[in-house]
Amino acid sequence: MQLTRFTDLGLRAMMLLASAEQDGRRVTTGAIAGSAAASEHHIAKAVSRLVDLGMVNSQRGRGGGLSLTDAGRHASVGRLIRELEGDKEVVDCAGDNPCPLLPSCRLRRALADAKEAFYSALDEHVVSDLVGDKQIPLHSLISLPLAFPDEQPSPIERTDS
Q1: Global pTM?
Q2: Is the pLDDT of residue 152 over 60?
Q3: Residue 12, class by beta-carbon neighbours within 10 Å (0-12 exposed, 13-18 middle, 19+ buried)?
Q4: Number of Cβ within a 10 Å radius of residue 89
Q5: CA dist 111 to 4, 5, 74, 104, 118, Å?
Q6: How far apart are CA 123 and CA 6, in angstroms?
């Protein structure tokens, strides 16, 4: 099974956020884009979906940035992929040009079982497992302690070169 670029970028964003969190830092979509070798526009779309799913917190303004939510921190990789990919079939048997073998085919069920086994294996891993104790380098990092909504924002220290 091959993941879409959208899902790949969403997973990379989650990994980078988990890594930055180890030092209590938040990052921008630009920092994720630079680190993931992707366009900021594509990262912004993936991050927007992760925010909608409740996996990422996005705070605008001077003390803003991106950070993982508790749900994002403990989300299984399988769940994330299901949410980002959608529940599409491995092969589209009934599309615009339906397969003539469809009425008696057992391949469709076998592929659905294989897809579920793929997701089940990934359900055994959570986002924090993907980074362990290693720091993943971030470009254009905002070095800020993680803020809580009732705290006053700190001044931004950029490490842009």
Answers
A1: 0.76
A2: no
A3: buried
A4: 12
A5: 18, 21, 28, 15, 10
A6: 19
